[in-house]
Amino acid sequence: MSANSIRAAGAVRGRALCPDPHARRWRLLDDAVLRWGEGGALSAVESARAVEGRGDPLPPVTHPGAVWLPGFVDTHVHFPQTQIIGSASGPLLSWLERSVFPEEARFADDAYAARVAERFCEQLLRQGTTSASIYSSSHPGATHALFEALDRRGLRAEAGLTLMDRGAPDALLRPAEEALEACGALADRWHGHDAGRLRFCVTPRFGLSCTPGLLRGAGRLAEERGLWVQTHISENPRELEATAAAFPAARDYLAVYEDLGLLHARTLLAHCVWLSPSEWDRLSAARAAVTHCPDSNLFLGSGQMPLAEALGRAVRVGLGSDVGAGRSFSLRRAAARAYDASRITGADEGPAALLWLATRGGALATGRGGEVGCLAPGYEADLVCVALPPDLEEPAGLSEDERVELLASRLVFCEDWGGVREVRVRGRRAWAATGEGAGEGR
Ligand SMILES: [Zn+2]
Predict the structure, then answer these.
(1) Which of 94, 206, 211, 264 has its Cβ near the most Cβ atoms within 10 Å?
(2) 148 with 158, same domain?
(3) How far is the CA of 77 from the centre of ligand 1 (A)?
(4) Tens of pLDDT along 27-70?
(5) pTM of the model
(6) How much distance in Å is there from the Cα of 291 to the middle of ligand 1?
(7) How far is the CA of 428 from the centre of ligand 1 (A)?
(8) What's the 206 CA to ligand 1 centre distance in angstroms?
């Protein structure tokens, strides 16, 4: 049993933003009480007035002036790029060669990997992320160290050894059979750990770094074990040309994965900047999910994903920080960048809808829609409490929708006015700002 599986019942009180389970909308409760039971699942989300009306005791407001919402879900982030965040050596292929591959080679050292894993988990939590889809390096030892840190810090995650058997320095390459065997052993150890809090995810880096044999084997492993698959697709025009040359039989980029058994309802595809209408249609028909990484796309000058193409086809979309091409672990920052990107691509999504993608959307995109991303009885109590700008007043006479949009815009755009106060996973306090009892178990 994991140390973090020891749970206690509890409650918090304050303003709460509750996502709709399916539509990109929110309900606002100005003074709510959120309770969870010993298993870490929410048992009640109700107004303080209702609690008072029954004559039940009311807990004090947990963080006055702050708002509770479901923990952020980062659907795309690279653990071994933590130390090279902001390395300005793009575009994509030169950035990989100059900044990423030399750093990822250092993860052959298990002790280094364990040190960085601890910092990585700390960065996720301090930004209010409670669940993440993570690429490790190509090293089994580093991947194991990552899972150990995720377990210790109480995070929810899917993570995988990054598969590469060509197109990178020798120190990062691992032959297909050896790599897939290592994946099997990591899945045996970690997949489903602590009642599904941790999952192993099959993680080919992208077509250019994998032979067809490795991709086919990865698809088979995912199929046999019921695992999720995450990979990159269609990020940068030069990558598209090189991929077409490396896979001459594939009709387009999506077909590289489609033809080798890697495109299905448990597939999470990052970037999707340059997909054709046919690729969008097939991705949608396969019920694959998409992770939108706008900050990374800006940093590497890759272009921007046309969000409307995905949402218009009811494709599940989450937001990804994509650290280290993304310059921040904050999903609030990712949502702000998604707003900017949506202006460029003509998608008409406002702050409330984008904040929904950063929480509930990510839960649905990663197959955790039945577990997290809603503040309602039955969902697990993965929560973040964010301070609001104290000096920004709310005008009188707004409708509820207008109030939600205003609150969402402050959460998304006013990151520098107020930070994360407290983070809980299954009700257990996983992180708290200094002065709020950081490091306490409850
Ligand atoms: Zn990435």
Answers:
(1) 206
(2) yes
(3) 6
(4) 999 999 999 999 999 999 999 999 999 999 999 999 999 999 99
(5) 0.96
(6) 10
(7) 30
(8) 9
**Cα gap 183→166, rounded to integer Å:** 18
Mean pLDDT of the chain: 95
Q: Which domain holds residue 417?
A: 3-70+381-432
In a domain, 264, yes or no: yes
Q: What is the pLDDT of residues 234-273, one digit of tens each?
A: 999 999 999 999 999 999 999 999 999 999 999 999 999 9
Q: Tell me how far the alpha carbon of residue 175 lies from the centroid of ligand 1, in angstroms.
A: 22
Output the CA 123–ligand 1 centroid distance in Å.
Answer: 17
Ligand 1 center to 97 CA (angstroms): 14
Distance 435 CA to ligand 1 centre (A): 35
Terminal alpha carbon distance of the chain: 18
- Rounded to whole angstroms, the Cα distance separating 90 from 299 reads 8
The residue among 196, 192, 124, 199 whose CA lies nearest residue 160 is 199
240 in any annotated domain: yes
The CATH number assigned to the domain holding 405 equals 2.30.40.10
Q: How many whole angstroms from 234 Cα to the centroid of ligand 1?
A: 11
Ligand 1 centroid distance, CA of 76 (Å): 6
* Rounded Cα–Cα distance for residues 353 and 408 (Å): 9
> What local confidence, expressed as pLDDT, does residue 416 receive?
86
pLDDT band at 3 (very low <50, low <70, confident <90, very high): low
Asked whether residue 440 is assigned to any structural domain, the reply reads: no
Local confidence band at 5 (pLDDT 50, 70, 90 cut-offs): low
**Amino acid, single-letter form, for residue 167:** G
- Please tell me whether residues 80 and 196 are part of one structural domain: yes
